Amino acid sequence: MRLIIYAILGFIIYYLIRGFSKSEPKRPPNSSVPPTGNGKELKKDPVCGTYIPEDTPYRLKHKGVPWYFCSEACMKTFQKQIAEEKGKSKAES
Ligand SMILES: [Zn+2]
Questions:
Q1: CA–CA distance from 88 to each of 79, 81, 84, 91 (Å)?
Q2: How many Å lie between the centroid of ligand 1 and the Cα of residue 18?
Q3: Rounded to an integer, what distance in angstroms lies between the CA atom of residue 24 and that of residue 74?
Q4: What is the distance between the alpha carbons of residues 70 and 78, in angstroms, rounded to a whole number?
Q5: What is the per-residue pLDDT across 66-87, written as a single tens digit (0 to 9) for each?
Q6: Distance 1 CA to ligand 1 centre (A)
Q7: pLDDT, tens digit, for every residue of 5-54?
Q8: Which residues surround ligand 1, an ion (CB under 5 A)?
Q9: Alpha carbon of 80 to ligand 1 centroid (Å)
Q10: DSSP H helical segments within the chain, as ranges?
């Protein structure tokens, strides 16, 4: 009876090891870091919440703080929000 349990355990362990070696094809040890774009820091798009690499072309500075966006649409939405915050209803077109 015990032999069967050991056999099953061994099988599970064997499968785990095989699974691990398959899912990690020789990557540097720090590959457990979340999906950063080639080691670049990811910034959160304040509009839609997407994470984008900080070298995105869609970025702007507001009150000395850099903001990063996934797309021009999000950047414009943010600019609009800033304009509304300032009390200016005049948004960029
Ligand atoms: Zn976005």
A1: 11, 10, 5, 8
A2: 39
A3: 35
A4: 12
A5: 999 999 999 999 999 999 988 7
A6: 58
A7: 899 899 988 988 888 766 655 655 554 555 554 567 899 999 999 999 99
A8: 45, 47-48, 50, 70, 74
A9: 14
A10: 2-23, 72-85
